[in-house]
Structure formats: structure tokens, C-alpha cells
Amino acid sequence: MNLAYTFSGFLVGILVGVTGVGGGSLMTPLLVFLFGFKPSVAVGTDLLFAAITKTSGVWVHHTKHGSVDWKVVAWLALGSLPCAVATLLVLRHFMEIGKETTGAITFTLGVALLLTACSLLVRSVLMHRSAKLDAEDSVDDQDDVDENTGRFKHLQIPATVFVGAVLGVLVTLSSVGAGALGTVALLFLYPKMRTVKIVGTDLAHAIPLTAVAGLGHLGLGNVDLVLLSSLLVGSLPGIWIGSHLSAKLPERFLRPVLASLLLLIGLKFVLQ
Question: What is the DSSP letter of 142?
């Protein structure tokens, strides 16, 4: 157990609880720049970390709020899980022939961070629009969302599967995107879906995706189990504290600052 890793996990957990930003956007750059881990190890460890920490959140959304659309989760997973496995197989092939994958992982991580920074800036606008639709359509039953409620009509299922496929590749290579990017994608695909259901559905999809990708990286030797356990010890109470502080802290100011920071970090990854 490393106290520095634990403390870092605690701080990241607080930020995740306050801002709702996915831990990968914060944790992976921290592990690379502050602690000097290889990008592949940082990504692999963070993926398993995300799969474990998100589980309790899905349980609450499913049992307490009933806010998971499992049909949409299945469509997303239909695209993301096969693409995650395919990406892992490509990484394994490159490793077997001695081809370095660090550059590809680093570049993809930078791109994912840039996209996440942009998504943070537009997410509040989409969330506000979604909340407004919630109020206007409060008399309607929105518990069962089908393709007719989506933006692309009869192409809704293929569009959702395609978004899942993109997330599958991006998350497997960078550990970033299952949270912030997934939420924005769902807000775009399903503008009439209740906000709480957007969050619950995205969270439910993130668990199998990060678990499959994380276990794949574990098989590739890209997971540091001591680091993982240290991060978990710190982050779980951090997330709990952050979620309680979120109502008291000026999140509308923190989010642009965080987006700017992720933008700078993303540029550094892309340009290095």
C-alpha cells in the first residue's frame, strides 16, 4: 500500500464526486505525469479501478431510482464490447511482434482528453435542455425509451451501436470517455430521455466496458495491483465526500476550470 497513491485517489475521488467527471480523465494523467507510470499501465489500472468504483452507483440507479434503460445499454454494449476485445487483440499482436504501443496509447489518451474537455463545456447546455424537456413532458411516460424517441428515428439502433463501438475503442486505448463522453453522446442521441436516466444508463454501460477492457489489460500485464488497491482505498471515501460537497461548492465554476486543465493535458499528450 502506497500512501501517496491513496491520497491521490482520495483527491481524485472528491473531484469526481463534486463535478461528475469520469475518474479516467483525472486519474490516468495523474499516474503518468506525477508518478511516472507508463501510459499502458496507467490506462489498464484505471480501467479496473473504474469498473469497481462504478458498480455501487449503478446499483443505486437501478434499485432506488429505476433510472437505467437496459435496452439502450444493450445497444451500446453491442458495439463497445466487441470493439474493446478487437482493440485488445490488436494490442496483443503488436506486443507479440515487438512493436511499441505506447505512442498510440499516448496519442489516443490525448485525443480522448481533448474530447472530454469539449464535452464538459457543452454538457451543461445539453443537461439544461434535457431538464427543460423533462418539465415539458412530465405528464408522459418515459420509462420505456425506444428508437422512435431518439434523434435518428429508424436509424436509432445503428447509431447507438456505432457510438458504442467508438467508445469501445477509445476507452480501451485511453481509459477515458466512458463517463463524460458517454453522457454527452446519450444526451445527443436521446434528447427526450430524462437526465437521471441518461446518467444511470451511461453508468450501467461503463461497467461491462471498463471491466472487459481492464481484464484484457490485466492479461497483457498492464495492471499494477498494488497501485489499484491503493487508489481504491483513497477514492471510495473521496467520492462519498465529494458527492456530499457537490451541493455546496460552485460546480459551475469548477467545471470550466477542469475543462481547461484537461485541454492543456490533452494537448501535451497529443504533441509529445
Answer: -
How confident is the model over 169-197, as a mean pLDDT? 86
pLDDT category of residue 146 using cuts at 50, 70 and 90: very low
Contact 67, 196 (CB under 8 A): yes
pTM of the predicted model as reported, rounded to 2 decimal places: 0.83
Terminal-residue alpha carbon distance, the chain: 31
Q: What is the CA radius of gyration of the chain?
A: 18
Question: DSSP of 243-254, one letter per residue?
Answer: HHHTTTS-HHHH
The angle formed by the CA atoms of residues 74, 211 and 149, to the nearest 5 degrees, is 25
Count CA atoms within 13 Å of residue 46 on its CB side: 32
Least confident of 22-26, 63-67, 132-136, 184-188: 132-136
Determine the Cα–Cα distance for residues 9 and 93; give it in Å rounded to an integer: 32
Cα–Cα distances in angstroms (integers) from residue 229 to residues 6, 45, 102, 263, in the given order: 8, 10, 24, 29
| DSSP code, position 65 | I
